[in-house]
Design a protein that fits this description.
single chain, 12 strands, 9 helices, 24% strand, alpha+beta, Arc Repressor Mutant, subunit A, 4-stranded antiparallel beta sheet, Jelly Rolls
């Protein structure tokens, strides 16, 4: 007799996602039975800008970036997402194509849900519809902030703002961990600048004693001064 499918991994990914963690048990169970497991290697494209938006993705493990590509090949990073985050729902609900190319930055485990299934489920389960609406609203606010950053803030202000948003308190020190893929080139794409300008800005902040650059992390030495730079 064949073994019954094990939906517990999908169920665990759903309940640990901050966007879906409050869903009723019934909705979580139905949702978990529709999830499709996907694995990606570093550099692999998960979805492509301009392709039909057929799936919602829930990240279980690993980081991805979402980028827009200009006709001359230049990239502008719009999103960096990690475990528990969602993407693709804006295309699913609008019936449009994916607005970003999403690429795995390291090994990624994810769960895909067919768009038609998601739309049907939101009609039957108001709690799921509300969770999706809250996520889309938060994404709109994020993009408003991104436009403000790129259009109104200097490069140094964008650096300060980004560092403070990703800082963690460890052993009494405020640090920003640097993952293996966090190169200067990757940071420059994220901040809408080029490597040389980014490097000069970081070195200037270090020479002023505001932060210290290390191989695996950035140590914020003077959070108040960095906060002031982020408002510039």
């Amino acid at each position: 007799m064949p073994a019954s499918p094990d939906f517990s991994p999908a169920r665990q990914a759903i309940v640990t996602s901050r966007h879906f963690s409050a869903l009723p048990a019934e909705v979580t169970e139905v949702l978990s039975r529709q999830m499709i497991s996907r694995t990606y290697t570093a550099g692999q494209v998960i979805c492509l800008e301009g392709e039909p938006g057929e799936y919602l993705y829930l990240l279980e493990k690993g980081w991805v970036k979402g980028v827009r590509t200009a006709t001359d090949g230049r990239e502008q990073a719009a999103l960096f997402l990690r475990d528990g985050e969602l993407f693709g729902d804006e295309a699913v609900f609008s019936g449009a194509t994916y607005s970003l190319t999403v690429v795995a930055l390291e090994k990624v485990n994810a769960w895909a849900l067919e768009g038609a299934v998601l739309v049907d489920m939101t009609k039957r389960y108001p709690a799921l519809a509300l969770a999706c609406l809250e996520h889309l609203s938060a994404r709109i606010l994020y993009y408003i902030q991104l436009v403000e950053d790129l259009g109104l803030r200097s490069v140094q202000a964008r650096i300060a703002h980004t560092l403070l948003n990703h800082a963690e308190l460890q052993d009494g020190a405020l640090i920003v961990p640097r993952r293996s893929w966090t190169t200067l080139d990757e940071m420059a794409v994220r901040l809408g600048t080029v490597r040389d300008v980014l490097s000069r800005s970081l070195n200037a902040l270090e020479s002023e004693g505001i932060l210290r650059l290390e191989r695996s992390q950035v140590v914020i030495l003077d959070p108040q001064r960095l906060l002031e730079r982020g408002k510039a």
